[in-house]
Amino acid sequence: GLDYRYPCGVAALRDLNLSVERGCKLAILGPNGSGKTTLLLHLNGTFRPTRGEVLLDGCLASYDRRFLNHWRRRVGLVLQEPDDQLFAATVGQDVSFGPLNLGLSAVETSERVREALELLRITHLADRATHSLSFGQKKRVAIAGVLAMQPEILVLDEPTSGLDARGVTHLLGALQQLHEAGTTLVFSTHDVELAYAWADQVVL
Questions:
Q1: Cα separation of 166 and 152, whole Å?
Q2: What is the pTM of this model?
Q3: Residues whose CB is less than 8 angstroms from the CB of residue 183 and which lie 6 or more positions away in sequence, other chains included
């Protein structure tokens, strides 16, 4: 029963009902302006519904700081525009921000950063300035930053947009590895063929 209305009065979501099964790859399709991004921003508590409820493992989500921290450890969100997510001076610093914020030690953070960079094939970029990266590189760094927090559920807004064919292949390979390791994947896309070929479930 999820509704969301923007402060300007625009109704973006109306009476939405959606279940995401553990371990699935769920694709969300819809034209521009249909509310895909707005929905994704509800899945980690960034937006709070105007009406209705969000449940995590059957428990009603709360929006106090403690629950939001717990929620965002479990549900990682990757935005469509990587520049909205990158802010540190170098790639390594950016990817380490999340684990350090979780209170992990420098040693464990370093290991998580190494694993995330290796998975996305960007280890060679660790010391590069984030502002000097190409769009595709920035996209992979943004994803690595979320992966380093090891979420159970990874939510991605248009993950393949702006990538060339090789970049798409590398990204999907990395996401498939995560899925095989037990990560639930939820992603929005305009690519109907991708959704049909790669997702377990598709919602419109």
A1: 27
A2: 0.91
A3: 151, 152, 153, 154
Q: Report the distance separating Cα 95 and Cα 127, nearest Å.
A: 11
Confidence at 199, pLDDT banded by 50, 70, 90: very high
User: Which tokens sit at 115?
Assistant: 């694993």
CA pair distance 189, 178, nearest whole angstrom: 19
What is the C-alpha separation between 27 and 189, in angstroms, rounded? 7
CA dihedral 172, 176, 177, 178 (to 10 degrees): 100
Task: Report how far residue 84's alpha carbon sits from residue 88's, in angstroms, rounded to the nearest whole number.
Answer: 12
Question: Which two three-digit tokens encode residue 142?
Answer: 């943004």
* pLDDT tens by residue, 126-154: 999 999 999 889 999 999 999 999 999 99
CA distance 175 to 148: 14
In the numeric block, which tokens belong to residue 107? 């040693």
How far is 51 from 110, CA to CA, in rounded Å?
A: 41
Residue 131: φ, ψ to 5°: -70, -15
Length of the chain: 204
**What beta strand segments (E) does 39-128 contain?**
55-56, 59-60, 75-78
| Cβ-contact 183, 153 below 8 angstroms | yes
Name the amino acid, one letter, at 83.
D
Phi then psi for residue 122, to 5 deg, are: -130, 25
